[in-house]
Description:
2 copies of one chain form a homodimer. Chain A is an alpha+beta fold. Chain A has a single domain, classed as Alpha-D-Glucose-1,6-Bisphosphate, Chain A, domain 4 (2-Layer Sandwich), CATH 3.30.530. Helix content of chain A is 26%, strand content 41%. Chain A has helices at residues 14-22, 24-30, 114-136, and strands at 2-10, 34-37, 45-52, 55-68, 72-79, 88-96, 99-109. Chain A binds chain B through residues 2-9, 11, 97-99, 101, 103-105, 112, 114, 116-118, 120-121, 124-125, 127-128, 131, 146, 148-150, and chain B through 2-9, 11, 97-99, 101, 103-105, 112, 114, 116-118, 120-121, 123-125, 127-128, 131, 146, 148-150.
Amino acid sequence: MVDILHKVGIKARAEEVYKALTTRDGLAGWWTTNTRGEGNVAGGAIDFRFSVDGVEMGGCEVKVLELAAGRQVLWQVVGGPAEWIGTRIAFELRQQGEYCIVLFKHQGWKEPVEFMHHCSTKWAIFMMSLKALVESGKGAPNPDDVRIDERS
Amino acid sequence: MVDILHKVGIKARAEEVYKALTTRDGLAGWWTTNTRGEGNVAGGAIDFRFSVDGVEMGGCEVKVLELAAGRQVLWQVVGGPAEWIGTRIAFELRQQGEYCIVLFKHQGWKEPVEFMHHCSTKWAIFMMSLKALVESGKGAPNPDDVRIDERS
């Protein structure tokens, strides 16, 4: 098992970051505008769809496994790319002075395939989008996310 | 052992990307302007220094282990943060149409410590800086790198 790990410091209260990770408007503001479902209740399901140049490229569905207000969000991936199925996506938050420190983990990849390298870079870019959303009110979610090659 | 993995597609010839990974001007153009040493010969040593708000925050020294023109650059870290010593940093390049695909690996971390999460995010940002340098002629190396928290 191999994991994607990231860390960002967001100049905000942890509660604000938590809101961006658990509400539809929050999630749509940094990951993908095409977000549906319920992120604010354990057992809830969220559906994320992505597109490039107006063409839908797929998506992923997660089940909300654990929530701790202002501290943790844990999802399990139940739909999407084959390599993602069964993996877990965790956001651990803690307040450190003026900053909310976010530890991000996309855990349980079976193999360090090339697609995992791609997703690692994209997750970093989306963490910066989350930071921008919370700090400035404007993130860069798909379809206006930062592209890293011709297809994404 | 755990690894940091990233992937970017750079719209350029692999030889151009290789140059940015093996020349002093190239490395100074995307990672840190304060770069010294010889990156274009196996056995060479390169010294990278980083600063934040005008204060030097440390650096790292690498030994060039392997070079394959237009295909691979492999370094071993011989100085710098304790967690980095002995780790290897690899850039694997391949041409895919108009794009040079870069697979990046910072391999051999003993533990997935919080500092590794930080470095994973920063490496993604520096890979985007490498992409910008090669595609547009202007990267975002330290000390003008994208900050992810109050200290970096």
